[in-house]
Design a protein that fits this description.
Layout lengths: L6 E3 H5 L3 H8 L1 H4 L11 E7 L12 H16 L4 H8 L6 E4 L10 H13 L7 E4 L3 H4 L5 E11 L3 E3 L17 H4 L15 E12 L18 E5 L2 H20 L11 H7 L11 E7 L7
Parallel strand pairs: 1-9, 2-9, 3-4, 3-5, 5-7
Antiparallel strand pairs: 2-8, 5-6, 7-8
Helix pairs in contact: 4-5, 4-6, 9-10
Length: about 300
């Protein structure tokens, strides 16, 4: 355990009280008395595996399921997969999985399937699970519990496309959030369609996109096999770690600090303007699980 920069291994973390961990993670769902936002801490789990891709370079479904399970258990401090999911999802929930269908880097089906499987295992009938992206405002707004999942990439309007940005399809006119590098994306998270509903954020970092210019930019030379998932109850904290990861990769690739095409300040503003989560790295506990080669952060 390294207290100076708040990095913990999974073994360190599981020594803590499972109740205390679950209470912190589920604070917006079950705990009435909250700390002031300036005092809150958040946890982000980074789980990686060297065999995340199969021989055809497709996501390895069995390994992806294992990664998700290990990440959720580490996040909650509970060493039983199904019990951990039962802390997140109630059997009577109507669950929406907010995915992402961007053609060049969509949410992998293997990740969607892994989430779906564990939601069912928690006791939710398949008839009460929905998955969507661009139809989120119509099909997911009435859900009682949301799972937010998408790949990490650089973004023409927002600097990065992360978990905060993924909810833009819950509003009728997404372009209204584009000014000033999408500074107020955090406001979306205060709307009734999503407020206090998100049980888990999964930022997919299997093959992140770390550079590009222009709208809908994509160049395969700017993705790399990182073979990871970032998991948190806090969309701000998980995106803050995502910014840190892409920054580290850009530094490694270009040999110097290279600014993003647009500012990534929407992550900080989601904290300081909209009180959605924690952006201060000093108040984010990063738990690392699994493979560490080329970890960068």
């Amino acid at each position: 355990m390294k207290k100076g920069n708040h990095v913990y291994t999974r073994r360190d973390f599981l020594r803590c009280s499972a109740y205390g961990a679950a209470a912190t993670v589920l604070g917006t769902r079950r705990i009435v008395h909250r700390k002031p936002i300036s005092e809150q801490r958040s946890r982000v789990v980074l789980v990686r595996h060297p065999d995340a891709f199969d021989k055809a370079h497709s996501p390895n479904a069995e390994v992806i399921q294992h990664m998700l399970d290990e990440g959720v258990k580490a996040l909650l401090g509970i060493d039983d997969t199904v019990e951990a999911w039962r802390q997140l999802i109630r059997p009577n929930d109507l669950v929406g999985i907010k995915s992402n269908v961007w053609a060049y880097l969509p949410t992998p089906k293997e990740v969607e399937d892994a989430l779906w499987r564990r939601i069912v295992d928690s006791g939710v009938p398949e008839s009460r699970i929905r998955i969507d992206d661009r139809g989120a405002r119509r099909r997911l707004a009435d859900c009682t519990g949301l799972i937010n999942v998408r790949p990490l990439r650089t973004h023409h309007w927002a600097g990065i496309g992360g978990c905060l940005k993924n909810y833009i399809m819950f509003v009728s006119l997404p372009f209204r959030y584009h000014p000033n590098a999408c500074a107020d994306l955090g406001h979306i998270w205060t709307l009734s369609a999503v407020r206090d509903k998100t049980r888990l954020n999964v930022l997919v970092v299997l093959r992140p996109l770390f550079h590009g210019r222009g709208a809908h930019h994509y160049n395969p030379k700017y993705v790399w096999d990182y073979k990871g998932l970032l998991i948190s109850s806090d969309p701000v904290a998980v995106d803050a770690i995502g910014v840190r990861l892409l920054s580290a990769k850009r530094r490694d690739y270009f040999g110097e600090d290279t600014p993003f095409p647009k500012l990534t300040h929407h992550v900080r503003y989601a904290d300081v303007r909209h009180n959605v989560g924690v952006s201060d790295p000093k108040r984010i506990d990063l738990i690392k699980v699994g493979w560490t080669e080329g970890i960068l952060i």
